[in-house]
Each structure stands twice: as C-alpha cells, then as structure tokens.
C-alpha cells in the first residue's frame, strides 16, 4: 500500500469531495479517483458512499480514516528520526488569512520560517475570518490566521498580535470634529465606509453598535469593501467615516491625512490569532509550521 494514498484518502474524507481534495493536493481529479479505487482494492472493502452531493465514509472507511492519521503521523516521526528530516522539509504551505494578519504580520512569519525551510513554497489566500474558520472546519486546510476567536471549541488558537478597531475620519473633517469626539447616536448622521460581512473588524464594530441599541443597518453605509487599502483611499478623499484596525491607518495618521475619532464608549481592543485543528492531519511542512508558531509565541 502506498501511504501517499492515505493522505489523499484523508483529504477526501475531510472535504467530502474528490475535486476539492484534488485542488488542495495539487493533483488531478482522475488521479484522486484512481488512488481511492486502488485503496478499496487493497483493503477489499468499499470505503465511500454518496450522501446527496457529498462523499462520506462507509463503516470500513471510518475505521481506515481513524488509523490512517495515526499511520501518517508515525511515518513522519520515522522519517525525522532516520533521515534528519528537518533539513529535508519540502512542500507547499497554503496560508488562509484574514486581512490584518495578511497585510501586517504574515510576511515576517513567512520570511522567518523560510530561513529554516528554504525549499518550502507558499500560496497565501486573503479571505475574511469567517471563511478561514469554515475552511478549517470543512477540512480544506489545517490552520489559518484570523482577527477573532472561533466559537468552535475543537479549534486551538495562539495569539500573535494585539490591535484596536477604530473609527477614522478624513483630515478634511477637522473643523467638524475639533474635539475629535462623537456620540454614538450621532453616528447615524454620518456616511460610513466599512468592511464586508464576515470581517472581524466589522463584527466587532457591530457588537459595539448593538450595545448602544443601534443596528448596523441603521447606519448610512455608502461603501462596503473587502480591502483596507481601498477603504483608506476613500477616507482620504472624504467619502465618509471608516471602521478600520488602528495599525492599518498609522501611516495616514502620521501624514495628517486622517485622524481617529473617539466614539462614545467604544474601546475595541482585539487580538490576532494563528488557529488550527489539532486532530486534523498535518502535512510535513504544515506540522513544521505549527511547531514554529508554537515555539515562536510560547511566552505570549
């Protein structure tokens, strides 16, 4: 039996879909199907069945899934012991990350990790925090970076940084807000530029509004965007107030193109996280990256 087929098998079970497993593993869909056929032939058992549009394991498939993760974990340990694998780690690391970690922290982590494992290649996909959690929970990836904690208790997290969500105004509004303050009720009179639904930044601001008995839909939202840099261009051109991470607007504030507006009762401190599912199978390079993250932030 080829143990690489077990890796493919695990991804098919995790993702409940052959084409998604093929995409994640960077192989063709027919190759995945062929490997699954060979596994069923080797074990003399049917390992899958259809449930609507999803592929789910049979009773025999569940048994194989349970032991396949253990087999691959032990295989990794054997390679590490016998071949000094730390010097031989190769492979692709796909990083799903929300905007803040992607824009301000991921590059430093990748540079540092690449010094240890220079043969690693990377794919970085910037999506919102909710989608990062969804990809982990559905098995499309083993880890990701987010701006909020998951409600799923199966997911573990490591804090990598701290930041604050703030309301930002264009420098052209200096006269309107001489004291740099605004009451919560007065937000209803302003135009707003905000992140898309699913964003951790917007989620935190919406919770603040709810505490003030204001619905997000009550605001005059003129623009919703998926990227902080786009929002900053709209701010500096005075198209409205914006809700952004403080770190994202440091340059604009230093250049006096924008300023932070102190909103009544709003203190939205937050943390950024490396999130992973410990009982999920990790490839060799994913396992090394997890060890790297745990070691790097062990005292935080």
UniProtKB/TrEMBL annotation:
Keywords: DNA-binding, Transcription, Transcription regulation. The keyword Repressor does not apply. One of its GO terms (molecular function) is DNA-binding transcription factor activity. The keyword Metal-binding does not apply. It comes from the Bacteria. InterPro entries: LysR-like_Sec_metab (IPR047788), LysR_HTH_N (IPR000847), LysR_subst-bd (IPR005119), WH-like_DNA-bd_sf (IPR036388), WH_DNA-bd_sf (IPR036390). Gene3D superfamilies: 3.40.190.290, Winged helix-like DNA-binding domain superfamily/Winged helix DNA-binding domain. Pfam families: HTH_1 (PF00126), LysR_substrate (PF03466). Residues 1-58 form the HTH lysR-type domain. Belongs to the LysR transcriptional regulatory family. This is DNA-binding transcriptional LysR family regulator. It comes from Sedimentibacter saalensis.
